[in-house]
Design brief:
Length: 298
């Protein structure tokens, strides 16, 4: 249960709290990302978590940061507790395997979404206007159809509890300048393309993903946050894929089916039964093993 406590590191200043991850100040140059075992569905965080989820998704992010290091630099310093400062090591028992020491960046306030398939809010906009993020797409696309090429479809970073708003890539140019915007969109597409091809060959479709970027102390564009986890991306089982309908989630379908079957109101957090927790954990392990070829450390 330790991974669900209010603050895992009381001596460190909590500076950001997401649905399932927390971010702490460590010193002038570094921050600590802590992945909890919390799980959310339909934008609601459940009352109990998935024991081990935080460790698995942290290790998956580390795998992708290393695989994609030739595409661009990341903010990752280490996930190895022995390499972390004493202020973090004091929490070794709770945090081992589910925290990342990262470089402090000047974060670019854009959700850098890349879509390989049209689904979710992109499909909703396409049905209404034939566009995604105001980018015109060919007529006649089916739900969940693969796009001709991965598409950079940015959104704003909404306040907690609000929904991100899809914006046209030109809006990003107005926000951060054309040169940086073009570098950022190309970097996002390059990262997604390499990861999606790698995962597809191992039975997982990464339909879309959200990257965050920042500038380091030398002004170098750097990939931040977590990358290419089932929390930041849509993972679909490739062997069940078919365009023209919604796809099962690789990792959350047991959870979603249980919630729908139990009349979930999509507002009130509930307690998950043991079998849903067990089956959901197994899917996170399955995704990790397929992608990395190794068992996660739990
Ligand atoms: C817990 C969820 O909160 C966030 O990820 C949002 N966030 C990220 C930063 C950040 N700030 C400086 N340097 C970084 N490397 C990062 C990163 N990543 C701040 N808020």
């Amino acid at each position: 249960m330790a991974a669900l406590l209010e603050s895992d590191c009381p001596a460190l200043e909590l500076i950001a709290r997401g649905k399932v991850r927390d971010l702490y100040n460590v010193d002038a140059d570094t921050l600590l990302f802590v992945a909890t075992d919390r799980v959310s569905a339909f934008d609601v965080v459940m009352k109990n978590g998935i024991p081990g989820k935080g460790k698995i998704l942290t290790q998956l992010s580390v795998f992708w940061f290393r695989l994609l290091a030739d595409v661009m630099p990341s903010h990752l310093i280490t996930s190895n507790m022995d390499e972390m400062p004493a202020s973090v090591q004091q929490y070794r028992d709770q945090l081992e395997g589910r925290c990342l020491l990262v470089r402090r960046l000047k974060v670019i306030q854009v959700e850098a979404i890349v879509r390989g398939y049209i689904t979710g809010s992109g499909w909703a906009e396409y049905k209404q206007k034939g566009t995604v993020s105001d980018i015109s797409l060919p007529a006649g696309l089916q739900e969940c159809e693969q796009l001709a090429a991965p598409l950079f479809t940015p959104s704003t970073k909404a306040e907690i509890g609000e929904h991100d708003e899809n914006i046209h890539p030109d809006q990003v140019k107005k926000m951060i300048g054309t040169e940086l915007a073009e570098k950022l969109s190309q970097a996002a597409v390059n990262l997604y393309t390499k990861a999606a091809e790698y995962a597809r060959a191992r039975g997982i479709i990464i339909a879309d993903t959200k990257f965050e970027f920042g500038l380091d102390e030398h002004g170098v564009l750097t990939v931040a946050d977590e990358v290419l986890t089932p929390d930041s991306s849509r993972f679909w089982p490739a062997d069940q894929y078919a365009p023209g309908r919604g796809q099962d989630s690789f990792d959350k379908q047991f959870l979603r089916n249980y919630l729908v079957d139990s009349g979930f109101d999509k507002k009130t957090s509930i307690e998950l039964p043991d079998d849903v927790i067990r089956d959901t954990l197994a899917k996170y392990v399955d995704a990790y093993v397929r992608i990395t070829g190794e068992q996660p450390t739990l």
